[in-house]
């Protein structure tokens, strides 16, 4: 899951970077760092970091606005000081240059990334539970019962006689009582995994959300450009007028964004993650009764006598 997710994340980041390199060349170099930070924040969020999707997305647009304003809306600006840049960042929150596109991006990503974050945490919890119960601590009474079951017949020279199934089950259930108590919680855990994987395949589709980031950013930038004169008037009142070259430069380096066709990388990553989800939940559903049936599993092999009319019941051959 993590490998497929990382592949999707790299694809989405590269696709977003290529948007600036092909459509918004004047700001491509400076936009590289905010893009990288955005996808780093998304990755950290899914892995359980104490952050939010909203803070990551809005921080990205805060960093993006000074670039859009000085490179696309007013490409003649020559002096973009730290104070002026900071003023633009703060102004972004008030004048909302990107319209509803920034909030829509928060909404879409929050749904899909939440499900992925929960699944990632659930997988970590499952590993912890399995590792904790890998070695069951045997009580003294359990150890005595196991020895009696397996070796007492040897004292009578009965080395080929194995325990009876019922006897084996009684001993094992006594030994594994603490493990079987996990049954209800484990069943609930499997149900939760099933719910999360279904959510990820439905309205919370991670692949579609990540692949759509570049489109949301592009729409947001186009919206800001269309409202350039109003934005400039507001910014001038709040931040003052920056230095400009004689005659405002045209944004000739901005090229229309064409529809980008889906590339094989995304298709492969999408299929890989979808298949992993299906295979994983199918496998996990088969383990729904695992902790309730450990004793049955242990008494279902070579440990007991199944095809003979005689077996050891703890006291004698019956």
Automatic annotation (TrEMBL):
<keyword id="KW-0654">Proteoglycan</keyword>
<keyword id="KW-0472">Membrane</keyword>
<keyword id="KW-0325">Glycoprotein</keyword>
<protein>
    <submittedName>
        <fullName>GPC5 protein</fullName>
    </submittedName>
</protein>
<keyword id="KW-0732">Signal</keyword>
<comment type="similarity">
    <text>Belongs to the glypican family.</text>
</comment>
<dbReference type="InterPro" id="IPR001863">
    <property type="entry name" value="Glypican"/>
</dbReference>
<comment type="function">
    <text>Cell surface proteoglycan.</text>
</comment>
<dbReference type="GO" id="GO:0090263">
    <property type="term" value="P:positive regulation of canonical Wnt signaling pathway"/>
</dbReference>
<dbReference type="InterPro" id="IPR019803">
    <property type="entry name" value="Glypican_CS"/>
</dbReference>
<keyword id="KW-1003">Cell membrane</keyword>
<dbReference type="GO" id="GO:0016477">
    <property type="term" value="P:cell migration"/>
</dbReference>
<dbReference type="GO" id="GO:0009986">
    <property type="term" value="C:cell surface"/>
</dbReference>
<keyword id="KW-0357">Heparan sulfate</keyword>
<dbReference type="Pfam" id="PF01153">
    <property type="entry name" value="Glypican"/>
</dbReference>
<dbReference type="GO" id="GO:0005576">
    <property type="term" value="C:extracellular region"/>
</dbReference>
<keyword id="KW-0449">Lipoprotein</keyword>
<keyword id="KW-0336">GPI-anchor</keyword>
<dbReference type="GO" id="GO:1905475">
    <property type="term" value="P:regulation of protein localization to membrane"/>
</dbReference>
<dbReference type="GO" id="GO:0098552">
    <property type="term" value="C:side of membrane"/>
</dbReference>
<dbReference type="GO" id="GO:0005886">
    <property type="term" value="C:plasma membrane"/>
</dbReference>
